[in-house]
C-alpha cells in the first residue's frame, strides 16, 4: 500500500520547528497529504472545588497563542515543499486523547516526536503512549536528530510471533524502497521450546524475498529489561535507517511492574522507530 495520507502530532511550538520540516519532506517524497494535529493538554490548577474562570481564560489564550505559532510554521513548510495539507488545532481545554484518535485514524501513517524531547510534559508523554496503544494506526517516532526523508533502503524489524509485531512488519513495507535490505531480528529472553517446521519469521522472510527485498534473519539474546537496548544495537550495527517493532504487547499492569520496551523506544531510540499495536 502506498502512503498518501500522513498525520503529524505536534505538542508545542518548539518541536514544531523540526518536526514539521521532517513531516513536510516525507509528505513531498510520497506525494502525500499532510494533516497536522495540535492537542491541548493544560495543567489544571484548582482552588477548592474548581478553578477560577480567569485561570481557564488565561489557559485558553496561552493555548491559542501556541496554536497560531504552530500554524505559521506549518504554512511556511507546506509552501516551501509544495505539499497539500491542513492544520487542525484542538479548540477545547479537555479531550486531548479523543481529539488525536479521531483526527489520526484516517491516516496511512502517523508521525510524532520522541518522548525524549525536553519540552514534552509528563502529561503529554503519557498522552502519546495512550495514542500508540489505542489508535490502531502505525506511528513513526522521530526526533530532531533522527529524521526520515523518503523511502527506506535499510530497516531492522524486531520480530516475534505476536499480532503487534506482525502488524508492524507489514505496515513498514509501505515505507520501504524497492529492493530494500531488511533485517529480521528475534530477541530471545529465555530458553524456548523449538517447534518443528517453518515458524512465522521464516515464513515472513520468504514472503519478503518474493517481494524483491533482500532479507537477513538473526537472533539475539537479552533479558526482558534489555530488549529495547538490544533492538537498538541490532539496528545500529545493521546500519538501519529505521527500527520497526510491535507496540505494547502486554497489559498496562505488566508494563508498570516489569517495564515496557515500547516506552523505552519512545523516549531513547536514536533512530526513527515505527510502532504498531
Topology record:
Layout: E1 5-9, H1 13-30, E2 33-38, H2 53-81, E3 85-89, H3 96-104, E4 109-113, H4 122-134, E5 139-142, E6 152-158, H5 163-172, E7 176-188, H6 200-210, E8 214-221, H7 227-238, E9 242-246, H8 252-258, H9 261-268, E10 273-276
Parallel strand pairs: 1-2, 1-4, 2-3, 4-5, 6-7, 6-9, 7-8, 9-10
Antiparallel strand pairs: 5-10
Helix pairs in contact: 1-2, 3-4, 7-9
InterPro entries: UspA
Domain UspA: 160-275
Protein name: Universal stress protein
Describe the fold and architecture.
InterPro entries: UspA. Belongs to the universal stress protein A family. Pfam families: Usp. It comes from Alloyangia mangrovi. The structure is a single chain. The chain is of the alpha/beta class and 277 residues long. The chain has 2 domains: 5-142, HUPs (Rossmann fold), CATH 3.40.50.620; 152-276, HUPs (Rossmann fold), CATH 3.40.50. Helices cover 42% and strands 22% of the residues. It contains 9 helices and 10 strands. It has helices spanning 13-30, 53-81, 96-104, 122-134, 163-172, 200-210, 227-238, 252-258, 261-268, and strands at 5-9, 33-38, 85-89, 109-113, 139-142, 152-158, 176-188, 214-221, 242-246, 273-276. A 10-stranded mixed β-sheet has the order 3-2-1-4-5-10-9-6-7-8, with helices on both faces. Helix 6 (200-210) links the parallel strand 7 and strand 8 (214-221). Helix 1 (13-30) packs parallel to helix 2, helix 3 (96-104) packs across helix 4 and helix 7 crosses helix 9 (261-268). The radius of gyration is 20 Å and the shape is globular. It starts with a strand and ends with a strand.
